[in-house]
Specification:
It is a single chain. By secondary structure, this protein is of the alpha+beta class. It has a domain at 9-65. The chain is built from three helices and four strands; from the N terminus they run ββββααα. It has helices at 45-50, 53-63, 72-75; strands at 9-15, 18-25, 28-33, 41-44. The chain has a four-stranded antiparallel β-sheet. It is elongated and about 85 Å long. The termini are far apart.
């Protein structure tokens, strides 16, 4: 026997150490970062069944602001050896 999905079901999942809230409801599936308001991934059941899910995910990803991973160069402190030593300004 299968239970009808007539209201939303929320669960928490951790992916790569980051917490997300997964909401499954009669309309589809939403994945939202913990503490965030806007879903990062949103799939409608109709899109999933029609094959349009990949296009919907790509569209949502293109509209979202990218979160670039920090590069090793950005993590290091700036190189101060190339700056002039403090002192008198030339006139």
């Amino acid at each position: 026997m299968v239970t009808v999905l007539d209201k939303e079901l929320k669960r928490q999942v951790t992916v790569d150490g980051v917490d997300f809230t997964v909401v499954v409801d009669p309309e589809g599936l939403r994945l939202t970062g913990k503490g965030k308001r806007r879903p990062e991934v949103e799939l409608r059941w109709r899109d999933l069944l029609s094959g349009e899910a990949a296009m919907a995910v790509a569209l949502n990803a293109s509209l979202a602001k990218p979160h670039p991973a920090p590069t090793p160069e950005a993590a290091r402190s700036p190189d101060r050896s190339s700056k002039r030593a403090p002192g008198k300004r030339p006139r």
